[in-house]
Design brief:
The protein is mainly α. It contains five helices and no strands. The longest helix has 40 residues. It is elongated, with a radius of gyration of 19 Å.
């Protein structure tokens, strides 16, 4: 199949770039959704009556703020690539709260970030995702410590 100017190589190259761009946008939007879910869950957890400990509430607020920062960075990259960033979370905060209590948040989020890093992404996006993953791993570790402290003092 030939392009409009009759150059088949040019047509194939253009399609490949377009397809790669779509994949990149999909990966970034998935990470945005995950972080939006985290924001909803952490904000819900911070307001729950079952979370009376100030240290735990502060950790939830801090993690919501961090996730909001990740969303802002990812949104900017999607827009820069010419895409439309997603604007809604995928699950409700209440469901996420139960998931969070089961300590599944960190593991699932880290897995999604590792999968994103396995994709062929531009270096600057790879670096951004890697930095966010590193921060998420630290936050997950902090949350595990807080949950352990909570259960030993209960």
């Amino acid at each position: 199949m030939k392009s409009r100017n009759g150059n088949p190589k040019h047509f194939a190259m253009k399609t490949q770039i377009h397809t790669g761009g779509k994949k990149t946008l999909h990966v970034l939007n998935d990470l945005i959704r995950i972080n939006m879910d985290r924001i909803a869950g952490f904000e819900k957890a911070a307001h729950e009556d079952r979370t009376p400990e100030p240290a735990l509430r502060d950790a939830f607020y801090r993690m919501a703020i961090e996730s909001r920062s990740y969303v802002n960075d990812l949104h900017a990259r999607v827009i820069r690539l010419g895409g439309a960033p997603v604007t809604q979370a995928t699950i409700t905060g209440k469901i996420y709260l139960h998931w969070l209590e089961g300590n599944q948040d960190g593991e699932a989020t880290e897995k999604a970030y590792h999968q994103a890093l396995d994709e062929q992404l531009p270096n600057e996006l790879h670096e951004l995702i890697e930095n966010q993953l590193w921060a998420l791993e630290r936050a997950h570790h902090r949350m595990q410590e807080l949950w352990r402290d909570r259960s030993t003092h209960a």
